[in-house]
Amino acid sequence: MGRVKFESSGYDNQDQDNGARCRRREAKVVFVLGATATGKSKLAIALAERFNGEVINADKIQVHDGVPIITNKVTEEEQGGVPHHLLSVRHPDADFTAEEFRRGSNTYIEALVEGDGAAFRLAHDLLFVWVDAERELLEWYAALRVDEMVARGLVSEARAAFGGAGVDYNHGVRRAIGLPEMHAYLVAEHEGVAGEAELAAMLERAVREIKDNTFRLARTQAEKIRRLSTLDGWDVRRIDVTPCSRARPMALSATS
To answer: Which pTM was predicted?
Structure first.
């Protein structure tokens, strides 16, 4: 998953051959990369605020409208007045072609930067910021994020989006982690075929599966970004947030 921030261009003076010539500075683009739950959205917004930029979403699920809790979209308040693009702009059931959004956020970014003979990379001044953390912290944050989503209303949101026993989770926003995992629980609840204790156990299993799949996604994303960092011409700056991230579990443990 990634966030793209465009900074407005300006002018530089540069000596060339026999004198100084004024040339237009290449448009600057900062790609904020990172596995889910690493805090890249907050960093992208902070950068945009600092440099008067805008944020372009590169998450293929968040492009769809609907289920903002399950897809973990930044709220209007969290956006802080920073213009955001490609958020909730497609119908929940709409699909992207392979050319529109290729197999995920980081693959899409690679296609944008390297496609067409690397024309985009050659035309822009690019910087890639990779927000990373140790694996056990990624797992902890993935679980914490799901717990926070449940507290914010994940179950109610999934219930409202439930399309019945025969719903297809291979299209549109229904592919989002958090919807397919809730299916068995919602079917049992809707059809009244399970008692209260059984429903509670089914919900617990669903939440556990959401956590497992979220962490699995985080690992896959980190592996893709690590590969991108080895490509020629990619100025990838890795930021290890492990030290500051460890402070949060310690603080939560101290107050629990």
So the answer is: 0.81
